[in-house]
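Dear H.,

Thanks for agreeing to be a second pair of eyes. The structure we're designing against is below in token form, covering all 235 positions.
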């Protein structure tokens, strides 16, 4: 079984995974998975793993299930990209604990009998109020290498996967937001455009697409796309 949830932001939202809020988790096993859609927030302190981070990573590791996260915009990329990678689920991952892993951009993973295309990252619209290397990192947007890996992975899969996991949404969803609210910020960067190219021009076939980033719950049936925040939903 696979469950998905939106941003965790470190201590801010991690307690949504507590047993009283997610009772289904008590009956899962290490062969079941909970996936965070970016902005995990527990690889954050620029000085290295803090006592708080260690506490919550151990807490997650002690859950009966296996915890996975993709990358968001609010991540310490200096630390993450310095960590060793290992082969798992048919792609590369970073192991934070024996049952806590980061899924990396551009790979197609085989998890619980399904294929998941992953492209995390995003733009911090509040970066002007943050400090580079302490609370904001330039690597927050996917790199050229990430997109080349994605192209290679999708070519090999004939542009057909079961599930797409991204932090941000493709441009077609931004267009809906802006139509509804002219003051809604229009994504001034390449990630949503590139996701739209993959979705529309390259005709990516998928059954479900899940995103975080926008701090809301919303489902777009036409695009088979769901934005999650504090919800924890089964696939």
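And this is the sequence the design step returned. I haven't edited it by hand at all.
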């Amino acid at each position: 079984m696979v469950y998905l949830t939106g941003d965790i932001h470190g201590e801010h939202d991690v307690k949504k995974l507590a047993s009283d809020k997610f009772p289904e988790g008590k009956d899962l096993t290490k062969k079941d998975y909970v996936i965070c859609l970016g902005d995990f927030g527990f690889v954050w302190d620029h000085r290295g793993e803090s006592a708080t981070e260690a506490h919550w990573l151990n807490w997650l590791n002690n859950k009966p299930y296996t915890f996975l996260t993709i990358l968001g915009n609010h991540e310490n990329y200096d630390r993450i990209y310095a960590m060793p990678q290992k082969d798992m689920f048919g792609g590369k991952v970073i192991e934070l604990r024996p049952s806590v892993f980061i899924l990396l951009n551009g790979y197609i993973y085989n998890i619980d009998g399904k294929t998941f295309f992953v492209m995390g990252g995003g733009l911090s619209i509040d970066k002007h109020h943050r400090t580079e290397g302490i609370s904001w990192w330039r690597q927050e947007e996917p790199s050229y290498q990430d997109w080349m890996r994605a192209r290679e992975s999708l070519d090999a899969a004939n542009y057909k996967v079961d599930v797409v996991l991204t932090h941000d949404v493709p441009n077609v969803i931004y267009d809906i937001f802006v139509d509804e609210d002219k003051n809604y910020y229009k994504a001034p960067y390449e990630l949503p455009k590139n996701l739209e190219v993959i979705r529309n021009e390259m005709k990516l076939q998928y059954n479900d697409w899940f995103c975080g980033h926008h701090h809301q719950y919303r489902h777009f049936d036409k695009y088979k796309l769901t934005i999650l925040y504090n919800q924890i939903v089964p696939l």
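Two observations from my side: Helices lie at 51-61, 77-82, 144-156, 171-180, 190-201. Residues 144-156 form the longest helix (13 residues).

Warmly,
E.
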